[in-house]
Every structure is written in structure tokens, then in C-alpha cells.
Amino acid sequence: MFSPKAALRHELLAARQAAAAPTGPGLLATAREQAEVVAAGRIALYVSMGVEPQTGPLIDWLLASGREVLLPVLYADNDLGWGIAPGAADLVPGRLGLSEPPVDLGADAITTAELVICPALAVDLNGVRLGRGGGSYDRALARVSPGTPVWAIVRDAEIVESLPADPHDRPVHAALTPTRLVRLARGN
């Protein structure tokens, strides 16, 4: 029997499989309009996989515009280290099929980000983020410097009224979608 979170993850992943519309150009256009993105010199982001909203165009634009992009390095204990993105062609294979930067700056490198953009399957209007269940991002988000904005990338339909939350879950301040940035109640 699935837990409430596991059942939600299953439903959300099935819905993502069915909604295969491209998301990369929309995410890039939405992000480019945001003051936090324009002002940030170092942004923590991630390389999308499979049916996740596509981050490639956003990463390419950030690098081309002279910003540093921190990308995660997945450790054996599912914690995350961070390395500076060298460019898509220079990423190396990581655990679980992830693409990672070749140099790991350590788990605390996320404290140097001026904006953190993380993956999610859904977020609710209070900033609760539902991830894939490994706890990697909750651990990483616990290290983010106070006052640093934290956003989750989702599709528009993945912003929901409420989600179940556990004490270790870290809230996000906004949801970045292919059409808009939604500021969430708990984060503001």
C-alpha cells in the first residue's frame, strides 16, 4: 500500500508522462523576466531528466550571459554536493543516470548561490514541495543561506491547493512554470 506522498508521486509522474509538451523555451522566457534571475551572479539549478520540465535552455542562457550555474552531484547517501557547470558538453555521468559537473565543490557550495531553483513533482500554495522521495533536496535546501530565494520548477497544473508535509520538508518561495512565476504564501 502506498503512503499518501507515494500515491501522489505516482499520479503526478503519470500525468507528466501524458503531458509531453515541450517546456524548455517557456521556462527560459519566464525566468528571463524575473528580477532575481537578472540580478543573480550564481544560481543553483539542476539538469532535467526524462519527463521533467526541461532546464537545458535556461542553463545554456545563464552560462552564455556570464552567470555561474551550480549543478548537483549526487552522493552515495543521496545528499548533494555542487559543482560549477562547465557547459552541457562537459558534464559527466553521475549516479542514477544524472549528468553532473566534473568537479565537486562540496555540499556547502549551495550556500554561495544567490538563487536556488530545484526540481519538484508539485508545490502547494503554502510552499510545500513534493519531490521524488529521496530527501536529497530537503537536505540541500536546509543549507541555503537565509534570505536566498528558493524556487521549484513545475508545470502549471502541478501547483496545487495543498500537499502533505513532513517536519523535514523544506518550503520553497515560488514555483517557476513555463508560463509564470507564482509566489507562494509561506515563502513571502
TrEMBL record:
Protein name: 5-formyltetrahydrofolate cyclo-ligase
Presence of keyword Manganese: no
Organism: Kribbella sancticallisti
Names of required cofactors: Mg(2+)
SUPFAM superfamilies: NagB/RpiA/CoA transferase-like
EC number: 6.3.3.2
Keyword Magnesium: yes
InterPro entries xref list: FTHF_cligase, FTHF_cligase-like_sf, NagB/RpiA_transferase-like
Family assignment from sequence similarity: Belongs to the 5-formyltetrahydrofolate cyclo-ligase family.
Catalytic activity: (6S)-5-formyl-5,6,7,8-tetrahydrofolate + ATP = (6R)-5,10-methenyltetrahydrofolate + ADP + phosphate
Keywords carried by this UniProt record: ATP-binding, Magnesium, Metal-binding, Nucleotide-binding
EC category: ligase
